[in-house]
Amino acid sequence: MKKKILFTTFFICSFTIAFTQALSTNEAKTLLEKVDASTNFSGYDFTADYAIVQDVPGQGKSIMAAKIHRRDTISAYTILMTEPQKDKGKAYLQRDNTIWFFDPADKKFTSTSAKDSFQNTNVQQKDFAPQAFLNDYSIAEAKKEKLGSLDVVYFYLKAKTNQADYPIVKIWVSEDGLLRKKEEYSLSGQLLRSTAIPSYQKVRSNNIERFLPVAMLIVD
Length: 220
Known about the structure:
The chain is mainly beta. It has 2 domains: 9-39 and 130-200, outer membrane lipoprotein receptor (LolB), chain A (Clam), CATH 2.50.20; 47-128, outer membrane lipoprotein receptor (LolB), chain A. The chain contains 2 helices and 14 strands; from the N terminus they run ββαββββββαββββββ. It has helices spanning 25-38, 133-136, and strands at 4-7, 21-22, 45-56, 60-71, 76-83, 91-95, 98-103, 108-112, 137-147, 150-159, 168-174, 179-185, 191-205, 208-219. It has a 14-stranded antiparallel β-sheet. The chain is globular and about 55 Å long. The relative contact order is 0.20. Mean pLDDT is 85; it is low at 1-19.
């Protein structure tokens, strides 16, 4: 059964490939560095409100809301559930590679991981953190393509550390260095998860620009 998760608003994407042109190793690495930097707010703190809409066939939609406080300089964030009422007060605390879940009902912390489900949805804890493709993956292929009407660079990435979330990741990056589509695979090549990001909100501080997704569609 396919489950869909949408941050903030629903959208429909159509993906087509029209042409290809390979990138040099340096060009590919430079663009991937830009992808990682685009959502990393090191040196700054930020707070954002997230709406999470889950649509499960036969079960309808459920809506959750959460507030996130992130400090990328020390790889830390806190996520506080604000809706629905039954989940209000539940929280996640991440620092480095450790994530803790707090349930106010029993007032206890339990350990979780970046790949664990967020509130029984197909959102994962890592979806709230900045991207770090260059640290965890090597570039097996990089070439220019078309994603619908958008000019993009397609990357085929292979995990090079045990910290990588998936053994194989394919990503499509627009010319401005923003991630537009991501597919995550098992070692055998089975597609496990797809994410589409059609639009971003620009955040500017002290002449430094960073970006946050306006909406994300996740299908597993």
